[in-house]
Design brief:
single chain; alpha+beta; three-stranded antiparallel sheet; 1 helix; 3 strands; 18% helix
Length: 66
């Protein structure tokens, strides 16, 4: 049987630590929720953390979306 991919738009939380990407696999339906976690990530360390949310189209299969 044919399997159809379900493509959806989400917001991806990107986290950089000292200029190196450490995370890009947290997906959110709501940009406000994504931004909340981006801001909290910045507060967690004395090191230079950059975090931001970007829209992305992904295959929903096997992916947890918050």
């Amino acid at each position: 049987s044919l399997h159809v991919m379900e493509l959806v738009h989400v917001f991806v939380l990107y986290v950089m630590l000292d200029g190196k990407k450490v995370s890009d696999d947290l997906f959110f339906w709501d940009i406000d929720r994504c931004i909340y976690f981006a801001q909290r990530a910045k507060q967690q360390s004395r090191r230079r953390i950059t975090s931001y949310c970007l829209p992305k189209r992904i295959n929903r299969e096997g992916v947890e979306i918050y």
